[in-house]
């Protein structure tokens, strides 16, 4: 992990996570954020028969461990490299090979703790990981009890590996909440792994970084531009913010942004046009992913606008679409003052470039609605009149949209002649 670029954090109310340093330069799309060896890992049963237990490559595995007759290797080199790790598990690996992967992982952790003589209950390098034992007890107490009992049965001749119930539950929790599926190059799961640092990255529907596995080693790269100060914002373990389902961690990862408000200054960040354009386009299309957190989405849009302003002209189509999206979100959140500011920014741009466009007509309609909400009736009337004038040109005065605006105007001031005069409304702005 490059501490210049990313940092681990733990803050009250936010929990723990990984983030791009606020004072850093941000992270370019595709750059390697960090790489890390697994703290523990296991291979799925079928895969364990046809893959080298060190490099995890699917090839002939002629070398077999004399002790367990279970661990196989493609070469002496791989066997040698795995020796230190394998000797911790050699005497129990046959007992656990058929167990569910969570249980295999727990036993692997117990073996590691035992052999490293780590203080009981203190997992040193994975002590940072959340275990969410209370949630697990609430949601699947039966499952937890079954796991405990299987562990005791499986390890009945290895009682020295077992630890007190509370510590054991914590390890089960850590394994359940933080494990990665190890994927091969075809993105098929071949095993499971736990990492001291990578496991602190949380699930997201719109991940900003992606994992790739080299053997059991994980490499994490930025899937898109990551802003300085961006971090993971939620600590619900593996619970999808959109669909609330439990999701395999590797299907989505993130170093998510938070709303702590780090402000970008000129020259602070990437000025690569293509990167910024991609970032903006992805963001505009990810409204659904942020359905439950509009404030956060708005924050990202605003940051995106700041970035774009440094490299694009105002009338850039991507810039305009981000601005439009920000306006939509404000209206949806009924943040009228904020919405009005976005509407006015858009108005200044669109008025110059799109004199009779539908977009401009609709913008004035929205602006009128916002002004009504703010109690600025006279301003609202002006906006709605302009909207009516523009949309009458583009849609014809009989159109529902135009009729609707006419009705609103009539309600505002029933006696006002100008609102009724539709036939002569074709003048320009
Ligand atoms: Zn190998
Ligand atoms: Zn062995
Ligand atoms: Zn999701
Ligand atoms: Zn932050």
Automatic annotation (TrEMBL):
Keyword presence, Zinc-finger: yes
Gene Ontology MF terms in the entry: histone H3K4 trimethyltransferase activity; zinc ion binding
Substrates-to-products reaction catalysed: L-lysyl(4)-[histone H3] + 3 S-adenosyl-L-methionine = N(6),N(6),N(6)-trimethyl-L-lysyl(4)-[histone H3] + 3 S-adenosyl-L-homocysteine + 3 H(+)
EC number: 2.1.1.354
UniProt-listed Pfam families: SET (PF00856), zf-MYND (PF01753)
Domain MYND-type: 52-90
PROSITE patterns, A to Z: SET, ZF_MYND_1, ZF_MYND_2
Keywords: Metal-binding, Zinc, Zinc-finger
Keyword Metal-binding: yes
GO cellular component: nucleus
Domain SET: 4-237
Entry protein name: [histone H3]-lysine(4) N-trimethyltransferase
Gene source species: Branchiostoma belcheri (Amphioxus)
Lineage summary: Eukaryota, Metazoa, Chordata, Cephalochordata, Leptocardii
